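[09:14] KT: can someone run the structure on this one? pasting the chain below
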Amino acid sequence: MSNPGHIGRRLRQRWDALLASAGMGIGVALCASSVVSVGSIWWRNADVAHQQASARAWQDVMAMKFAAQSALTGDDLIAARQSLIQAAESLKLTQWKLSLPDGRIIASSQGTQGAIEELPESWGVAPNRPADASAGREAMVIASIPDRGDVMVTVTASPQSAALWDDPTVWIVGGAGMMLGLGWLAWCRRAGTRIAGVVMVCDALRAESRGETAAEALRIDEGFGAEAVTWNAIIAERETARRREVEERAAKVLAASSTGDGPNALGGLCDAMWTGLLIFDTEGRVTYCNGAAATMLNGKREDMPGRQANEVLADEPIVNLLGKAIGGGCRHRVLHEKIVETPGAGRSTLKYSVKSLRKDDTGAAFIVIEDVTQQKVAEESRHSFAAQVTHELRTPLTNMRLYVETLVDDETNDPQVRAKCLNVLSTEVRRLERVVSDMLSVSEMEAGSIMLRNDDVRMDALLEEIEADHKATAADKEITLHFDLPPKLPVLDGDRDKIAMALHNLLGNAIKYTPAGGDVRVIVTEENAQLVIMVKDNGIGIKTEEAELIFEKFYRAKDKRITGITGSGLGLAIARQVVRLHGGDIAVSSQVDKGSTFTLTLPVGKSGTGAAPSRAAA
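[09:31] RB: done, C-alpha cells below
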C-alpha cells in the first residue's frame, strides 16, 4: 500500500511541473504573437513601399522619355548625353539607360562604358514596338525620335525601405508583447523556484519527523528562495544550540564531579581519553588536566593544576584565544592548529579547540587538544592520489589522441603505420582500463568489501596476455623481458580480472623502477599445490624497513630516485588484498641498487574464498 504522503508529494510535483509548463507556454505565446504582429506591420509597409517605388519609376521614365526626344533631335552625341545626364541628376536617378532597338547603348548611368561613339543617321523602330511596361521599381517606355526611329528608355527607381522602425506601432506592439512575455516568464520562474523551495522545506520536515537529525541531510539549496535561506538558518541555529548544550553539560558535570583516580571516577575516565582536556579559571590558571593533555604538552598531569596558561601552552596565539574566551570576548568555539616536534616521534599536528564556559560553571574556559597527524597524512595522501591518477589518465589519453590524429592524417594508408597506431591504441586502452580498475578497487576497499566473481582462470592464456601488454613498454625502456613458464600451467578457480590486475601491478612496477638496459624476469612454478609466480628485476631496490610499508595504501618509497616516476601508491596494496582473498599471498625480498623479487602464490584448485562468489571485508 502506498504512503499517502508520498502520493501527495508526487501529485504536487506533477502539478508544479504542469504549472511551470503552462506558464512557459503562455510566455512563449506572448513573445511569438508580438513577433507575428511586427512581421505583419513590416509586410504592410513593404507593400506600400513597393507601390510607391513602382509609381516613382513610372514618373521618372516618362520624364526621361521627353528628355530623350528633346536631346536626340540633333547630331551632337556629346551634347545629347550631357543633356540626358543633367535631366537624370535633376530627377535624382541612380539607374537609367537609353538604348537603340538593336540593344546598343546611347547613354546610361554608367557613363560611356559600352556606349556607341556616334549617332547613326537612322536606326529604325523597335521590333514589334513593345508596349510601355512597369515591373516593380523598374519601368521601360519607347520614345520615338522624328526621322530617326525609336529608343528604349529604362529607369530603375532607388530602393525604398519598408520604414519598419519608423512606424510607432511597431515599437508599441513589439515592445509591449516582449515585455509581457519576458515578464511572465520571469514571474513563472520565480514562482516555480519559490514553490520548489516550499516543497523541499516540507520534505525536510517530513524527513525530520521520521527521525532524521543530521544537519547536512536536512539542509536545502539556498537558490530556492527566502524560504530555503530561512530554513537553513533555523537548522544551523538548532545545531549550534545542541552543540553548546552538550559542551556546557559536559563541562558542568566535569567540574562538579570528583577528580579522583578510581576506576569509576570521572577523573579516571577523562584520563583514559585519547583527547586532551584542560580547564582554566578566571585568572588563566589550570584547574584540571587529564593524562592525554599532559602527554601532548610534554608535562606531568600532577604538575599542571595551578600553572598559568602561558607556562603550559607556550604558544602565543593559543594563549590569546584563551584570554578572549575567559574574558567573554569570544563565546563560540575557536580552532587553532599547531605543528610540534616530539623527541623520538617526529613532527605531529595538534588541533586546539578553545571554548568559554557559562558564568555559573566552575571554571572560565576549557581547551580540547586532538592529535590530527594521521588525518593530515591521509588528506595529503588523498590529494597526492588525485594528482597521480589525473596524470595516469592524461598520459594514455594524450597518446591515444596523437595516434588517432596520425591515422586520420595518413593519406597514404600505409599498412605498417596503421598497424603501429592500432597496436599503441590497444595498449593504451588496456592501460586506461587498469587505471580505472585500480580506482574501482580502491572504492571497494574504502567501502569495506571486495566482490570476487569466480570462474576457471587459464593461466597460460592470462600470462601470454600480460606479456603482450608489457612487451612494448619494456622495449621502449630497452629492458629485457623474460617469461620462464613450465610446459603446462594449471587452471585456477578465481576472479580472472582481479588476478590479472595483481600481476599487471607487479610487472608494471618492475619495469617502471628498473633503469634502461635492465632485466625483468617472470618465473612460474608449481609447488605443493601452490602456483608460484616470481617477478624479479635488477632495478633500484627497496630498503628493508620499507618492505612492508609499500603494501599500505597511498605509501610510496622515500627513495629520491622515484620522485619523477608517476605512481598512486595503490597497486601493491590492491594486489596483496586481491591475492589474499584468493587464499594466497605476496611477499617481497629486495636489496637497494640490486633489485627486488616479488613472489605471488595462489592455491591450485578450489580455494577457501574462491570456491564460490564471495564478499570479503577489506
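[09:33] KT: thanks! The two ends are 39 Å apart (CA to CA).
[09:34] RB: yep, looked fine to me
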